[in-house]
Amino acid sequence: RSDGHGAKKWQSTDAGIQSHAIKAVTAFLGCLSTEMLRLPPIKESISDILVLLEGVLQTKNVSVLIQAADVSSKLVSSIGNSIRQYPILEIVSPLSCQLSAHQLPTAISCARAMNCILNSLVTARGSTHAEILETLERTNAVASIVSALQSYTPDVHPLSYLTEMISLLRTILWIWPSSRYHVWSNGNLMGKLAHYCLATETTVVAKVLRLYAALALCGHGAMILLKNKVLMAKICELVGTSHPSSTRIEAFKLCHILLRSSKGCSQLMTSRCQPIVEGIIDAMRAKDDKLLVTEGCRTALLVLRYAGNHHQCFWSNAIDKVLYSILTGRCLSSHQSDKVLCDDELFDMVSKNFMDIHPYVWDILGYLVVHCTEDHHPVRKGKGHSLHALISCACLLATDVMRKSSPMTLSKDVQEPALRAVLMMLLSPNGYIQYEEVHAVAISVKSGRVKT
């Protein structure tokens, strides 16, 4: 019906009618396809569904409320990014009001639906974000979530109540920076979150780590986390081999944010250098888990940007051998993994089998050599082949750029990272690095790869 100004409003307060309408919407959404979403009648129907949900989400009937919240999630999942074409804000407000509901199933379903909606609007226009933030503040959404997390008791509340609230809070913190203050300034809540991270099961730990990553985007939030020595010890443990890959990846992602500044790097690496480096090295060696290898490489790159004693820890853990294995590991069979390739063989292998992980190898090598002190000898006795091969290959890729008539045209994705590494070698104060670079370039000149 119309309210007299052209806008539709849902009028029925009968729970039976509301339930039937929700069931009809569920069936309708199950039939939608991408092509159908472009049709005007379908668009009009979706607008009507939002009117229905706005009205029904204000009912007092718990069963109908849960159905409406679940359908809200299904609606967003069904129409994807098209959700931005519709007045989705109309259902954010009633969903947010239900976060403090005493009926736990209602709060859980509404938190799940809100999280689904907000995630779909991450890249929406700034004006949309401003409107949603105003709604969240008006309905005290963050305060309701904080209260839920502080009052959570395993014996009373289901685990899903905790996980859904943590996930929703993480999304809000990620999108709206101003909301982070209400979390990091709350000592009681921070203590509760640390307890969940230290003492609970894997599912909760991973979600808390994601929440910490969003919180650490605020400098004050990051410093509060870094000052908690017990928590930092746990996070450093979580990057280790005794934990599932999914948990280790989330721990690495949190480290990425904590390592954004030199101060953060110093605080994290000064007291926990060895376990972090060992976790990174092990992740970089994980041949069957590409995502874990990538996160390990990203963490190594962020750590090695800064000078410090942690560089010696990486060298002690044979970082050069690990980088060499990444370049060759997917091209050599298991029984060939210890095979020593000559410089030209490695160059041909890398240039013909480029992978997304290779730029990390060259950037990591660059930071290793530029921070390699004058008196440090990076080669372990009798085990210098890996570093020699890496330097030679980088120089061959760089000198190939200077060839005017190269039969092999390499993409910039292959050459630019290697060029950066070579430039870093030029800045290295270490005599061994300089010698290896000069030697590699001289070989290239002698072989005719580049003209003098």
Order of helices and strands: HHHHHHHHHHHHHHHHHHHHHHH
Biggest pleated-sheet summary:
none
Number of helices: 23
Number-wise, the strands total: 0
Mean pLDDT across residues: 87
Indicate the structural class. Answer: mainly alpha
Computed over alpha carbons, the radius of gyration is 28 Å
Strand content: under 5%
Q: Helicity range of the residues?
A: 55-70%
Distance between the termini: 83 Å
Shape: elongated
Low-confidence runs of at least 5 consecutive residues: 331-337
Could you walk me through the main structural features you see in this protein, from its secondary elements to its overall organization?
It is a single chain. This protein is mostly helical and 452 residues long. Among the domains are: 13-139; 341-404 and 411-451, no CATH class. The protein is built from 23 helices and no strands. The chain has helices at residues 15-30, 40-56, 62-79, 89-97, 104-120, 126-138, 141-151, 159-175, 181-184, 187-199, 202-215, 219-227, 229-238, 245-258, 262-284, 290-304, 310-316, 319-328, 343-352, 358-370, 385-401, 412-426, 431-446. Helix 3 (62-79) runs parallel beside helix 5 (104-120), helix 5 (104-120) packs parallel to helix 8 and helix 15 runs antiparallel to helix 16 (290-304). The N and C termini lie far apart (83 Å). This is At1g04390 ARM repeat domain-containing protein.
